[in-house]
């Protein structure tokens, strides 16, 4: 048998085995997603809050009190943002309705003057859309019931996330050392060092993402204020959240801002809003992200786009959210492990305390 064929066959069955194993792992994860998703979210939040908890411990605070303090700070910030968004939306809703009516009239007049379409055709299209919604009322109602069930799962996941986050902040290192203790003794040092490097990468990624998201939200919000767009605070909050999904998140959130500007204050200002958003996105991608991330997250944009697409296909919005950090951490850990023999052997971590902690628990 030719040597090339033997090599191709060896690679083929190993690749098939890896793909099948990943498929089975993803299927298994899908069955327990209510548990796995909160753990991953808590890990991302811990990467943001753990440096603060570590600073408090170095200042002499008890471990549990430092973890609880940072947890309360994180929950307080999120609750404050949500409260502000809801209040601003409620206060500006009436003005938005009147502005939308005027904006739709302007858009209709602009369309009839610019394109070969009549007012009657536009009215017929709107009536057909309304009839379609009425005909599918049962489908929409069942979707609302499904959403109600989903809300229950979200609340359960939120409580589980807070619970897991507290223990990650308090005993994250000991939990990890217990996991490392399950590995063969000779590989524990390498595994621990790879995880340390991945953790530093994740911290850098989360910090940079928060900085980029805040930059986008503030400056796009300022531009919308000058344009007279209603509901600036909710739109800025949407931009902030969208920035956590690289590349496509900011684009989608910016699109919503442009559409609201279009129907509220007219097409000219909507074009100006589009120009502002494109300018800020260019500053973000070419100046801010390289400055904040540096060499910590060395992921090519093509790998990021493909990863986001795969994450969106496999896990929906949540998959797109974690795609880039997973690729970045996997890249750092895989690079180190593949070159582990080129440097000094890392010390073996002390896993005895972690085992005693688990046994006592």
Largest sheet: number of strands, sense, barrel closure? none
Strand content: under 5%
Number of strands: 0
From the alpha-carbon coordinates, what is the Rg to the nearest angstrom? 25 Å
Q: Which structural class should the secondary elements be placed in?
A: mainly alpha
Measure the end-to-end span.
58 Å
Average pLDDT: 77
> How would you spell out the order of helices and strands?
HHHHHHHHHHH
The dominant shape is globular
- Which regions have little confidence, pLDDT < 50, spanning 5+ residues? 142-149
Query: Which range best describes the helical content: under 10%, 10-25%, 25-40%, 40-55%, 55-70% or over 70%?
Result: over 70%
Q: Number of helix segments?
A: 11
Describe this structure in words.
The protein has 361 residues and is mostly helical. 87% of the residues lie in helices and 0% in strands. Helix 3 packs antiparallel against helix 5 (137-180). The protein is globular and about 75 Å long.
Explain briefly what this protein structure is.
The protein has 361 residues and is mainly α.
Looking at this protein, list some descriptive labels:
361 residues; globular; 0% strand; 11 helices
Helix and strand topology:
Blueprint: H1 3-31, H2 33-58, H3 63-114, H4 119-135, H5 137-180, H6 185-227, H7 232-242, H8 248-265, H9 267-293, H10 301-338, H11 352-360
